[in-house]
Design goal:
The chain has about 260 residues and is an alpha/beta fold. Helix content is about 40%, strand content about 15%. The protein has one domain: Aldolase class I (TIM Barrel). The protein is built from eleven helices and eight strands. Helix 1 packs parallel to helix 11. The model has no long low-confidence stretch (mean pLDDT about 95). The site of 2-phosphoglycolic acid (PGA) has 13 residues, from strand 8.
């Protein structure tokens, strides 16, 4: 399959880090380091940072995204934020189904599906996270599990809408643990997910979809991971908070 057909995307996932003022500083520090990037550069920030991050990113090649959105357009959902609210403030990208949402906040494949639907309906691009726990890997069900998560999330998503879907393969055991999947493991699962997309849609869709790896990707291991034929980018947690490290990952993606 031809990697050149796909856009490489490096996205930071800031998680619950940075105040609005710090967000401005971080974007301003990253911007000059990634200005010549040959890939898309995204920073997904906490809701309260979106405005200041957007302001700081004006005139740069950094796009600002959110880390989640609710499935309803509005209503009695205390503490939640709708996709429409995000799009109305100019946000174009949102992470859905991150394993921390699944693990700590009761996110299920069904609610991931509903959030993906809402995000697409609001015109957003979705970074859809899938991935197995260590137990599931040991049980030998990684590919099936990722296929299931992908199929449920994308149920009813049209081929046209698929152009606004990026999939992030994030093995749960590799997130924030310093344990990275080997380049081969990452590539195998990204390839299996691509096969699932091929079965759900067609080979053109499979060839065209961007599939990222995420889980302890850093300045040291990014080049090897990103050189894999089925790894089209990265979703970066910890290292996205360090301008030099994040820029090194962007540089590695640029080299591909
Ligand atoms: P990490 O997080 O890079 O800190 O492992 C990745 C993620 O959770 O998206």
């Amino acid at each position: 399959m031809n990697k050149q057909l796909r856009k490489a995307v490096i996205a930071g996932n800031w998680k619950m880090n940075k105040t609005p003022e710090e967000a401005k500083e971080l974007i301003s520090a990253i911007a000059p380091l990634v200005k010549d990037a040959g890939c898309e550069v995204i920073a997904c920030t906490p809701y309260v940072d979106l405005y200041s991050a957007q302001e700081a990113a004006k005139g740069t090649n950094i796009q600002i995204g959110a880390e989640n959105c609710h499935w309803a357009e509005s209503g009695a959902f205390t503490g939640e934020i709708s996709a429409k609210m995000l799009s109305s403030m100019g946000v174009k990208i949102v992470i859905i189904g991150h394993s921390e949402r699944r693990q700590y906040f009761g996110e299920t494949d069904a609610t991931v599906h509903d959030r993906v639907r809402a995000a697409l309906d609001a015109g957003l691009t979705v970074i859809l996270c899938v991935g197995e726990t260590l137990t599931q890997r040991e049980q030998g069900i990684t590919d099936e599990l990722c296929a299931m998560q992908t199929k449920i999330a994308l149920n009813g998503v049209s081929k046209e809408e698929l152009s606004r879907i990026i999939i992030a393969y994030e093995p749960v055991w590799a997130i924030g643990t310093g344990k990275t999947a080997t380049a081969q493991q990452a590539n195998e699962v990204c390839a299996a997910i691509r096969k699932t997309i091929g079965a759900l849609y067609d080979s053109k869709a499979a060839d065209g979809i961007t599939i990222q790896y995420g889980g302890s990707m850093n300045a040291g291991n990014a080049a090897e991971l990103l050189a894999q034929p089925d790894v089209d980018g990265g979703l970066i947690g910890g290292a996205s908070l360090k301008p030099g490290d994040f820029a090194a990952i962007v540089e590695a993606a640029t080299r591909g």
